[in-house]
Backbone:
């Protein structure tokens, strides 16, 4: 008796099966999955030690807090870069271009479109981390004030 082929259904293509990307980091979801699997497969005559379970739960909480702190540190660093870039507007800055030549100009604007802010200097967009020096632009434009004569006694 001949058997007819069965068509695949539900997201499987003729070219192959869908590939699941493995997680590269352990997060709370992976940790909880491991803990639940461990509880399901434990020997009923020798259950898991409650101290060990509390220790694992504490490790999970610590891991979540460290992950939150790392994210907050990253956000703080990004904010600091944005503030530093904005503070350069109107300043005379120096950077090294792609040819290795030191260029000096006035920072006109800042863009936050990329991961690292870019500063527009004389029409050229320069990454913030390529800027090597800053001089107060107002200091260059302000003439020296006349000095008062020394008092005589």
Residues:
């Amino acid at each position: 008796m001949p058997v007819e082929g069965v068509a695949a259904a539900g997201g499987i293509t003729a070219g192959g099966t869908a590939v699941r990307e493995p997680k590269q980091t352990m997060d709370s979801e992976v940790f909880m999955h491991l803990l639940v699997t461990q509880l399901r497969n434990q020997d009923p005559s020798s259950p898991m030690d409650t101290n060990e379970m509390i220790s694992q739960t504490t490790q999970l909480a610590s891991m979540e807090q460290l992950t939150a702190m790392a994210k907050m540190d990253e956000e703080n660093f990004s904010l600091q870069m944005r503030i530093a870039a904005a503070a350069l507007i109107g300043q005379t800055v120096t950077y090294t271009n792609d040819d290795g030549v030191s260029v000096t100009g006035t920072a006109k604007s800042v863009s936050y479109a990329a991961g690292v802010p870019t500063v527009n200097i004389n029409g050229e967009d320069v990454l913030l981390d390529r800027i090597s020096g800053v001089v107060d632009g107002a200091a260059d434009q302000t003439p020296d004030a006349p000095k008062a004569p020394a008092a005589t006694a």
